[in-house]
Amino acid sequence: MSRRAARTKALQVLFAIDLGRMDPHQALIDIGTGDLPDQERDFMRQLVLGTVAALAELDAIISKYAVGWRLERLAAVDRNILRLALYEMLYCPDIPSNITINEAIELAKNFNNEEAGKFINGLLDNVRRDRENRQRRD
Fold first, then answer.
1. How buried is 55 (Cβ within 10 angstroms: 0-12 exposed, 13-18 middle, 19+ buried)?
2. CA distance linking residue 44 with residue 6, whole number of Å
3. The pLDDT of residue 4
4. How far is CA 77 from CA 31, 63, 105, 113, 132, in A?
5. What are phi and psi of 38, to 5 degrees?
6. Using CA atoms, how far apart are residues 40 and 103, in angstroms rounded to an integer?
7. What's the helix, strand, coil split of the chain in %, to 5?
8. pTM higher than 0.85 for the full model?
9. In this structure, what CATH number is given to the domain that contains residue 67?
10. How many domains does the chain have?
């Protein structure tokens, strides 16, 4: 297994929390258990619980960068991919942003379509670029 499998499972859990209104801990039990090795399961759990804890911050970033789109009008899968990737970009400094963005694009292509991948790429790349520019100025 891999971190890609952990991200895929994390997306499924986040989707159930978002659309199914499931309790995060119950969603982790119902969906997040399974064939992931311990290390990947721990990573998946970190992604889910971290994303849920930072949801207001992540949604504010998405709303800022998704020009012309209200958060609730985004496809649910895209919204949750963005939340997951932004959490990883902001709170997992050991993972390079380009890896996170590429993984998010692949999730979008697998769970939605090529156009969704382009949208995800554009939004996340703009966030990455702005963060890098801010860090250079500071």
1. middle
2. 5
3. 94
4. 16, 16, 12, 11, 27
5. -50, -45
6. 15
7. 80, 0, 20
8. yes
9. 1.10.940.10
10. 1
